[in-house]
Amino acid sequence: MERFRIYGNEYIKNKLSSMIIKGRMIPSILIYGEKGLGKSEMAKYIAASLNCEKHSGSPCSECRSCRMILHSNHPDVIYVTPSSKSGLYRVKEDIRPIVSDAYIPPNESGKKIYIIDDAQKLNAECQNALLKVFEEPPGETVFILTADNKQSVLETVLSRVFSFEMSRVSQKQAEAAIIENGFDEVKSSDSQSAFPGNIGKQLEYLNGGDLFDAVVIARTIIDAAVSKNEYELLKAYSQLTDRETAQNVIDLIMEILSSAVEYSTGAEVYPCAYNEGAKRLSDITFSKRIAELYDTLAGAKDRIQNYANLNVLTAVLAAETTRLW
Ligand SMILES: [Zn+2]
């Protein structure tokens, strides 16, 4: 039977379930956390919990309402996404219409729920337009926002919503999910070390998506650093031609560097996308230099978010990486 699959994150489920059972008013909700943790699935799960005909505080997956939500065709669960090509929300086209529509009562019994995905793509004007409905929500309406991070949400919005952070899941839960999706244990262990506890990223990696390429680039950069090959290093960094790839590769390298420091200090080593590379890196350089590169990369991530020039940035990173040796 098809059912809602939410791994881990018991706290969020329990908290909302108890509010629903007690009949407490459910305010607007923000679910935030890195990509791949299942924020959109959680939003659907909450919508189904609110509208389930069995009123048990969590979705039964069987009633008419749950089944419609599972198939994304419940008339009162509205998915809001940006309509523009830029991928950003626009106040007039995307937000104002839902604000006025929110005052119309639900078609079916239960709640009318708006799921606004990628709230980090709402500019201040859009967020301000939503403030009014968050302040005085129309009777049977609930807004659920998802966002990659909390920083992109205005303080005024944060003070009016219930915020929940999605967590990575345990290794056991991730393994179960990967195997449920048709991969074997070897694949599961490979993806687990590359993206510990993040099922969405593991599946994208295993299905050969962008994250697979990111892992290949990150490993090439580490190999070039270990073999002290400046030309290969530059070549590998120059593959970071778009912001998302750059963010993904830098995240992976930072995790590999953390493991390298753990190898050199004799601490317990957590799995990363390239344990062998981390070990070899720890043999050729000092943990202080690895830590310095880690800080440089953390700074680079901020600069990528602030739209720094990628060509310049990757050249700088290649030069900074040569300081390892
Ligand atoms: Zn149900």
Can you characterise this structure?
The chain has helices at residues 10-21, 39-51, 64-70, 91-101, 124-135, 155-158, 171-180, 185-194, 199-206, 210-226, 230-237, 243-265, 275-284, 287-305, 310-322; strands at 29-32, 77-80, 112-116, 141-147, 162-165. By secondary structure, the chain is α/β, with parallel strands linked by helices. It folds into two domains: 10-165, P-loop containing nucleotide triphosphate hydrolases (Rossmann fold, 3-Layer(aba) Sandwich), CATH 3.40.50; 209-322, Zinc Finger, Delta Prime, domain 3, CATH 1.20.272.10. A five-stranded parallel sheet has the order 2-3-4-1-5, with helices on one face. Strand 3 (112-116), helix 5 (124-135) and strand 4 (141-147) form a beta-alpha-beta unit. Helix 7 (171-180) crosses helix 8. The longest helix is centred in the C-terminal third of the chain and has 23 residues, at 243-265. The chain starts with 9 loop residues before the first helix and ends with a helix. The chain binds zinc ion. The site of zinc ion (ZN) has 9 residues, from helix 3.
